[in-house]
Design a protein that fits this description.
The protein is of the alpha+beta class and 118 residues long. It has a domain at 2-10 and 46-117: Immunoglobulin-like, CATH 2.60.40. 21% of the residues lie in helices and 37% in strands. The chain has helices at 12-28, 31-38, and strands at 2-8, 48-52, 58-61, 65-67, 80-86, 90-96, 102-109, 115-117. The strands form two sheets. Strands 3-2-6-7-8 form a five-stranded antiparallel β-sheet, with no helix packed on it. Strands 1-5-4 form a three-stranded antiparallel β-sheet, with no helix packed on it. Helix 1 (12-28) runs antiparallel to helix 2. It starts with a strand and ends with a strand.
Length: 118
C-alpha cells in the first residue's frame, strides 16, 4: 500500500538561492572542495523525507513533487511538496510547522495506507 505525505516547504526561496550559488561556486572550483566548504544544497533544506533503516541510518532520500499553485510571490510560503511513501519502509520526516518550529519524526505506512508516527 502507498500513502501520500504533504509538507509545506517554508523558506523554499532561500534554499533555491543557496542552490544557485552552490552551482556557480562548484563550476569555479572542484566538486569535492565546494562540498567541503558549503555542504550539499539538500542539507540546507528545513524539510525532507529520508528512507531509513531500523537504526535510523539513511538508506536513500525520497524525492517529492513540488506544487507552487498556492505559493506567495517570493516562494517563501505556500510551496508544498508531496511524497509517496510505501508500506514496508521506515521514514524520517522533517516538516516545518512555522518559521521557528520544525517537526521531526519517524513514521511508516500501515497496511491500510495510513501514515503512523513512531
Amino acid at each position: 500500500m502507498k500513502a501520500s505525505l504533504k509538507i509545506e516547504a517554508i523558506g523554499h526561496d532561500e534554499v533555491q538561492k543557496a542552490s544557485l550559488c552552490y552551482g556557480i561556486v562548484s563550476e569555479a572550483i572542484s566538486q569535492g572542495v565546494s562540498k567541503a566548504i558549503f555542504g550539499h544544497p539538500m542539507h540546507l533544506a528545513r524539510w525532507g523525507v529520508k528512507e531509513v533503516d531500523v537504526k535510523g541510518r539513511l538508506v536513500k532520500w525520497v524525492r517529492g513533487r513540488t506544487d507552487y499553485s498556492e505559493a506567495n510571490s517570493q516562494g517563501s510560503r505556500g510551496v508544498f511538496i508531496y511524497y509517496i511513501l510505501e508500506s514496508g519502509h521506515r521514514y524520517y520526516v522533517k516538516s516545518p510547522q512555522s518559521w521557528g518550529t520544525i517537526d521531526e519524526y519517524y513514521c511508516h505506512v500501515t497496511s491500510d495506507g495510513s501514515i503512523e508516527h513512531e
